[in-house]
């Protein structure tokens, strides 16, 4: 009962944000379908491919062909940097709720009640999982609706399997950043400090992973960082469920959550 | 003694210590608060009052010692201990976008105790809090309204122990009166109140016993009546005609503050019999005895490095 009250409180606080973000992301998927339809009708995929510089073609390899299609453009909604950035930022915002409660001293009100400390972390984990599921559901609904309304006949639509694979892998990535952020938030006194530390880490590792694709020395240690385990371009060509990648990302998330539980149970609030 | 044993103290603190790096916030603190009393926990800013309270609530982890509430250890049996507490923080951290009702609902949901609508209605009425205000967002509340809401959330589940950190901060004098009456009613119902304060007049008026903390150490622990008895009273002796002899020497326990041929002013810390004997034979017209104010005594404890 006590934990449920806290969970309901958090849900009430974030529902408007999540509804808005879900609508925005679903709308983005619809827009991508619209853009892909326009390109398909203009037969612009070939022209677009010719505009891509050589080094980028080499970097993208065979996935370029998959990308420069109706289905490829629609799938961009699952790995566009703006989408990934928004989702990771949302995960960070949700996972830092605990440090916001400490900063505001709201935690005094909550934990002066018969509520075990771990509930603050458990609450954040539940909110994180539900929010991730909702956002990905909204995105996939946007894609399905877009395909249903806008897919031109004869176009190479992304298969349901591909969308599902992208969703699973992306979901694991979001949970990974949520878990890692929770570990940071569990020892922070300020939401801004926890959020900026996690945000900086996400940005740095994203850039590092980007560099690792073109610079071999960096590639040797790229496996240490979460973005290495979400290679959407490769998924476009293989359409295999990346179980190993998902497992690794969930292990990152699990480790972060476990550390958060331990650190939060020991600290002064 | 078993937990919840009615004979045991409401709060028991044994050799509690807490450091923040080099700063000793609470230093080997021991005290007991009996059930059914209003206990005033006094100290200047930074003396360690709030730290002690936060240790009781297990928000801070002690470096030494232990504390229990109604016989339940605050660390090992924290949930049991905290289920018996209503708490008003000194600094009420609230999300500004919550409404008053949402905060009360959350607080009720977390308390694990039944919240009776008539109790809430009574609190609202006593603290002159309009029900319609509960549906406003907290960002629209004044300081006093936030304080009142804080009191309502602490009292609404009618817990056996109330821990109030500077409860009247931000309340106007009329509301303070209502609050004191609320405390007296709760005491009559057998509830225990542990309140920190630095408003001495309030403590004198409301509390049965006090503990005074300075630099994390308990320097005074007594009932308000006992402290008053210990304290020196001021006696003004008025004469019918000029008395030219010096009042010195006075018996032990008396000190001359001022003297003129027509009046002596003496500080008396003890029974008055010796003074009456000393005055025998003098043309005494009247004796004015002023009781010592707790405030004056406590100020000495606040100021002195080592009180006598």
List key phrases describing it:
heterodimer, A: 269 residues, mainly alpha, globular, B: 308 residues, 4-stranded antiparallel β-sheet, 10 helices
Structure characterization notes:
The complex is a heterodimer of chains A (269) and B (308). With 269 residues, chain A is an all-alpha fold. Chain A has one domain. Chain A is built from 14 helices and no strands. Chain A has helices at 2-42, 45-51, 54-60, 63-67, 70-75, 81-95, 97-104, 106-111, 118-150, 160-185, 191-212, 216-219, 232-238, 243-266. Chain A starts with a helix and ends with a helix. The model of chain A has no long low-confidence stretch (mean pLDDT 91). Chain B has 308 residues and is an alpha/beta fold. Chain B folds into two domains: 3-228, 3-Layer(aba) Sandwich (Rossmann fold); 232-290, Alpha-Beta Plaits (2-Layer Sandwich), CATH 3.30.70.1560. Helices cover 31% and strands 29% of the residues of chain B. Chain B is built from ten helices and 14 strands. Chain B has helices spanning 49-56, 78-82, 100-111, 117-126, 143-155, 173-188, 200-206, 224-230, 273-279, 294-303, and strands at residues 11-20, 23-33, 38-42, 64-69, 72-73, 85-88, 161-165, 192-197, 209-214, 217-223, 233-239, 254-260, 263-268, 284-290. In chain B, strands 6-7-8-3-9-10 form a six-stranded mixed β-sheet, with helices on both faces. A four-stranded antiparallel β-sheet of chain B has the order 2-1-4-5. A four-stranded antiparallel β-sheet of chain B has the order 12-13-11-14, with no helix packed on it. Chain B is elongated. Chain B starts with 10 loop residues before the first strand and ends in a 5-residue tail after the last helix. The chains are: A mainly alpha (269), B alpha/beta (308). Chains A and B meet through helix 1 and helix 8 of A and helix 2 and helix 3 of B.
């Amino acid at each position: 009962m006590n934990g449920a009250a806290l969970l309901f409180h958090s849900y009430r606080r974030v529902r408007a944000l999540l509804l808005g973000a879900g609508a925005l992301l679903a709308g983005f998927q619809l827009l991508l379908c619209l853009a892909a339809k326009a390109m398909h009708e203009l037969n612009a995929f070939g022209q677009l491919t010719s505009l891509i510089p050589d080094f980028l073609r080499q970097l993208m390899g065979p996935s370029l062909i998959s990308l420069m299609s109706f289905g490829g453009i629609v799938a961009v909604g699952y790995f566009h940097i703006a989408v990934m950035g928004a989702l990771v930022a949302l995960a960070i915002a949700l996972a830092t709720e605990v440090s916001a409660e400490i900063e505001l001293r709201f935690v005094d009100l909550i934990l002066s009640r018969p509520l075990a400390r771990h509930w603050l972390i458990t609450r954040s984990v539940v909110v994180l999982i539900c929010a991730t599921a909702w956002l990905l559901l909204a995105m996939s609904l946007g894609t399905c609706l877009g395909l249903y309304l806008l897919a031109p006949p004869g176009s190479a639509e992304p298969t349901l399997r591909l969308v599902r694979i992208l969703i699973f892998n992306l979901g694991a990535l979001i949970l990974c950043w949520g878990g890692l952020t929770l570990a940071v938030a569990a020892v922070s006194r300020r939401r801004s400090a926890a959020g900026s530390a996690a945000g900086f880490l996400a940005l740095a590792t994203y850039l590092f992973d980007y560099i690792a694709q073109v610079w071999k020395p960096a590639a040797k240690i790229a496996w240490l960082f979460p973005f290495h385990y979400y290679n959407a371009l490769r998924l476009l060509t293989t359409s295999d469920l990346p179980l190993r990648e998902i497992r690794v990302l969930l292990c990152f998330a699990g480790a972060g959550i476990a550390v958060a539980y331990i650190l939060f149970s020991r600290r002064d609030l | 003694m078993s937990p919840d044993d009615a004979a045991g103290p409401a709060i028991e603190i044994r050799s509690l210590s807490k450091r923040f790096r080099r700063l000793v916030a609470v230093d080997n603190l021991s005290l007991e608060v009996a059930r059914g009393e209003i206990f005033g926990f006094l100290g200047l800013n930074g003396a360690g009052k709030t730290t002690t309270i936060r240790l009781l609530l297990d928000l801070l982890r002690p470096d030494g010692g232990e504390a229990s509430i109604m016989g339940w250890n605050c660390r090992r049996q924290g949930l049991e201990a905290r289920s018996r507490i209503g708490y008003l923080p000194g600094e009420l951290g609230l999300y500004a976008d919550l409404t008053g009702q949402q905060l009360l609902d959350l607080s009720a949901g977390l308390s694990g105790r039944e919240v009776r609508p008539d109790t809430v209605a009574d609190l609202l009425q006593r603290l002159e809090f309009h029900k319609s205000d509960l549906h406003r967002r907290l960002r629209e509340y004044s300081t006093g309204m936030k304080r009142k809401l804080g009191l309502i959330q602490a009292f609404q589940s009618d817990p056996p122990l109330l821990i109030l950190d500077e409860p009247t901060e931000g309340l106007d004098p009329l509301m303070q009166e209502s609050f004191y009456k609320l405390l007296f009613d709760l005491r009559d119902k057998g509830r225990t109140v542990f309140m920190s304060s630095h408003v001495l007049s309030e403590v004198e008026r409301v509390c049965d016993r006090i503990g005074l903390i300075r630099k994390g150490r308990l320097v005074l622990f007594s009932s308000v009546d006992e402290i008053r008895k210990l304290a020196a009273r001021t006696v003004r002796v008025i004469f019918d005609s000029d008395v030219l002899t010096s009042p010195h020497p006075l018996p032990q326990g008396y000190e001359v503050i001022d003297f003129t041929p027509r009046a002596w002013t003496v500080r008396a810390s003890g029974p008055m019999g010796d003074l009456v004997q000393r005055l025998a034979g003098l043309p005494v017209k009247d004796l004015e005895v002023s009781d010592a104010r707790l405030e004056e005594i406590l100020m000495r404890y606040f100021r002195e490095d080592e009180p006598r």
